[in-house]
Amino acid sequence: MSTHYFIGIRIPGQIAEKIGQARDSWELTTHKRLTPPADMHITLVFIGEDRFGELEEIAKRLGQIGQAPFHLRLAGVKTFGNAETPRIVYAALADSPELMELQQAVGQQLDSLKLSTDPKPFVPHITLASRWKGGSLPKDWPLEKLDFRVDAFSLFEIHPRETPRYKEIQTYQLKGRA
């Protein structure tokens, strides 16, 4: 199996732990995979496998992004897929022009490369549970509207059989415009 990659924002440890504790309090037994706090992140761009050997160029281009750090706020829990049998349960994020700007900047840096990124529209989220297995969903999804600072983003490598699954291979600090 070939290695896959994505560009994303790691959720700070204390925030990820609080999100994980909230999710665990729901006794969510409807999904096969519950995201461990150490793997919680926001995907900016999914790359997949590096079929054209562009990883080094991707890493170089990402270093050219200049943006100041910003804050994000959780905005409740939502799902992807059928509301009765959702394939993904996720923590939603409040609207953030800065997050959208960062995601667009990352996408623009990759535009002229051969890789084929995920064509779906960007929906900022933190996956909490995936792979529906059946059962009854909780009636309530209490999740504190936590606020956290984003001061970096990373190029990640996916290791499906390990925990944590997502390993940062290069991290880029947000430090403002040059």
Automatic annotation (TrEMBL):
Keyword terms, alphabetized:
Hydrolase, Ligase
Q: Per the UniProt record, which EC number(s) apply here?
A: 3.1.4.58
Motif span (HXTX 2)? Answer: 125-128
What EC class does the entry list? hydrolase
Return the SUPFAM superfamilies for the record: LigT-like (SSF55144)
Q: Where is this motif: HXTX 1?
A: 41-44
* Catalytic function, reaction form: a 3'-end 2',3'-cyclophospho-ribonucleotide-RNA + H2O = a 3'-end 2'-phospho-ribonucleotide-RNA + H(+)
A GO term, aspect molecular function? RNA 2',3'-cyclic 3'-phosphodiesterase activity
Q: Reply yes or no: does the keyword Methyltransferase apply.
A: no
Query: Does the record bear Ligase in its keywords?
Result: yes
- Kindly give the InterPro entries that the UniProt entry links to this protein: Cyclic_Pdiesterase (IPR009097), RNA_CPDase (IPR004175)
**Where does the record locate the signal sequence feature?**
none
The record's section on Pfam families has: 2_5_RNA_ligase2 (PF13563)
Q: Which domain of life does the UniProt lineage start with?
A: Bacteria
Active site, UniProt feature: H41, H125
The record, for PANTHER family, names: RNA 2',3'-CYCLIC PHOSPHODIESTERASE
Q: Which family does it belong to?
A: Belongs to the 2H phosphoesterase superfamily. ThpR family.
Write out the function statement from the record: Hydrolyzes RNA 2',3'-cyclic phosphodiester to an RNA 2'-phosphomonoester.
Q: Protein name, please?
A: RNA 2',3'-cyclic phosphodiesterase
Taxonomic path: Bacteria, Bacillati, Bacillota, Bacilli, Bacillales
